[in-house]
Design goal:
The chain is mainly α. Helices cover 69% and strands 0% of the residues. It has helices at residues 2-25, 34-37, 43-46, 52-75. Helix 1 (2-25) packs antiparallel against helix 4 (52-75). The protein is elongated. The termini are close together.
Length: 81
C-alpha cells in the first residue's frame, strides 16, 4: 500500500501545480463597461464554451474534482498500512 500512496501523492502534487497554472491562465470575470452596452451578446460571448476560455473552465472543474477526491483518499488511514 505504500507504493499506492506514493503514486497518489505524486498525482496529487501534479494536480495541484496544474490547477494553479490553469487558474492563473484564466481571464478575469469582470466584463467592465461592455456588459452595460450588451457587448457580451456577440458571437464570441455566446460561444465562449467552445473557446480556449471554455476549455480552461472545464479543465478547472475536472482538476478541482480530482483534487478533492485525492485529498479525501490520501487522508484515509487505510493507505498507511
Amino acid at each position: 500500500m505504500g507504493v499506492l500512496r506514493t503514486i497518489l501523492t505524486i498525482v496529487y502534487v501534479l494536480d495541484c501545480i496544474a490547477l494553479s497554472v490553469i487558474v492563473l491562465m484564466q481571464e478575469g470575470k469582470d466584463a467592465g463597461l461592455g456588459a452595460i452596452a450588451g457587448a457580451a451578446d456577440t458571437y464570441w460571448g455566446q460561444n465562449k464554451g467552445r473557446s480556449m476560455e471554455g476549455g480552461l473552465v472545464r479543465a478547472t472543474r475536472v482538476m478541482a474534482a480530482v483534487f478533492f477526491v485525492l485529498s479525501i483518499v490520501l487522508s484515509m488511514n487505510f493507505l498507511s498500512k
